[in-house]
Amino acid sequence: MSNLIARLCTAIENGQSMEPQDLASFIEGVANRTLSIEAITVWLKAVHAHGASVEDTVALTKGMMHSGAVLSWDSHRPVADKHSTGGVGDKMSIMLAPALAACGVEVPMLAGRGLGHTGGTIDKLESIPGFNCALNPKQMQSMVNEIGCCIAAQNEAIAPADGLLYAIRDVTSTVDSIPLITASIVSKKAAEGLKALVLDVKCGRAAFMQTEQQAIELATSMVRTANGLGIQTMAQITDMNEPIGSHVGNALEIIESVEVLNGRGSKDTVNLVAMQGGALLHLLGKAESSEDGEQMIVNTLHDGTAAKRFELMCIAQGVTPATAKKLLSTPENVVQRAEQVTELKAKSSGHIEGIDAMVLAEIAREHGAGRFDIEGIIDPSVGFVVLKAKGDEILQGQPWIAVHHNQPLTIDQEKGLHGALRLSTAPVKPIVRLLKVIQ
Ligand code: URA
User: Fold this and answer.
1) pLDDT at site 1
2) What's residue 118's pLDDT?
3) pLDDT number for residue 112
4) What is the CATH number of domain 340-424?
5) Ligand 1 neighbourhood includes 121 CB (under 6 angstroms)
6) What is the pLDDT averaged over residues 236-262?
7) How far is it, in rounded angstroms, from Cα 144 to Cα 19?
8) CA 63, 69, 73: angle at the middle one, nearest 5?
9) Which atom of ligand 1 is nearest to the CA of 111?
10) Contact of 264 with 292, CB cutoff 8 Å
């Protein structure tokens, strides 16, 4: 182990602050790829196991933010974004960025790939043929000036330190750490040069933060850090026990997103998009209340203006105009489809008490929806269409989920899926996603 990593880890293990110069050298070594993956993993494991102080978290975030370009804007339109800590079926960004753009907000969104069991916006968008998420700062700036939004992956130019840390965390079980998540998310968002930010902090069995207390701690850490960097920030803590919306899996989530952009689709998804967008429009002073903001977002989904921005964004990011047009009318004919679709049927009748999103995520990952190592290749076509939701009534023999797969479902996976559906004899209320707001 190098002296640098040894000094940093000793400080972390003893609960002391890391030397600012050492931390800066570490971030530089990550950003310019001179530190080995093994050395970075040792540091990540130390922070994951022992945590980091508020001061170190802020220093880490600032260092990661400045590890690449920081965008600046002279536009009269406000610049804003949202970020989620990661969920199952969490496709909100794909609809939210164009919907906000249609409301006159500029959204230079930097998004991530799948992390652990959770899906990533970039992997989802890359299931659209030709969609290019590798934008440099200049391209991001000109797209946002022209169209109002873009969705890009971190690259060598923007937050490069997070790019590598994120990829290593994904495969070293070091994701669920408050300082690491704070620095990862807030550094990327701060590099976008934002005025306002809404954070969706997921909470529940299929979230990195499983209890409300942990979610509050993470939300507080991120809101404090982002506000400290001059970004008006609020966090919405939302329930992540049930899969979000109707589709889970990279290409399948594109299909659902297009449905919603066309004014249809799952109510759960529409509500989440509207809630996040509404809060941002209110934070920016473009809506008198969050509720008014929600209505503005819903209007863009119904009047075609969000769909138009999405089409323009696809074309600007490499999709041919003909493919973009077809994507908006028949997305199922554009994205890759799985060879097999297996419907599972309820074994008894009842009211749906819950569908375990974590079980779905793990099985989808085993079938290629997520990675298990840094070189892992995603199969965009696999996933689920969830036909029923919490609170619905179901009769024995009725299908509740359609599994899209290219490899046979094992007996254990089928058993696991049946176990994911919990039924009650008494009526059950539909899910309420919003648990708490942290400002
Ligand atoms: N999303 C990110 O960008 N980083 C994390 O650490 C978790 C979710």
Assistant:
1) 67
2) 87
3) 87
4) 3.90.1170.30
5) no
6) 98
7) 38
8) 120
9) 3
10) no
Cα(330) to ligand 1 centroid in Å equals 31
Kindly give the interhelix angle for 305-316 and 92-102, rounded to the nearest 10 degrees: 110
Angle (CA) 401-208-432 rounded to 5° is 55
- Answer whether 85 contacts ligand 1 (Cβ < 6 A): yes
In ligand 1, the atom with minimum distance to the C-alpha of 180 is 6
- 183 close to ligand 1 (CB < 6 Angstrom): no
Does position 47 have pLDDT exceeding 80, yes or no?
A: yes
Domain ranges of the chain: 3-51, 80-329, 340-424
Query: What are the φ and ψ backbone dihedral angles of 88, each rounded to 5 degrees?
Result: -120, 115
Q: What does 229-280 look like in DSSP terms, one character per residue? A: TT-EEEEEEEE-SSPSSSEESHHHHHHHHHHHHTT-S-HHHHHHHHHHHHHH
Q: Of the residues 122, 166, 173, which should be mutated to test ligand 1's pocket, given the most ligand atoms within 8 Å of the CB?
A: 166
Q: What are phi and psi of 49, to 5 degrees?
A: -80, -35
Question: What CATH class has 80-329?
Answer: alpha beta
Q: Which residues have CB under 8 Å from 269's CB, separation 6+?
A: 91, 92, 95, 244, 245, 246, 256, 257, 260
Distance 408 CA to ligand 1 centre (A): 32
Q: Which are the catalytic amino acids?
A: 83, 162, 169, 184, 188
Number of other residues whose CB lies within 10 A of the CB of residue 425: 9
CA distances from 206 to 90, 154, 360 (A): 11, 25, 9
Amino acid at site 360: L
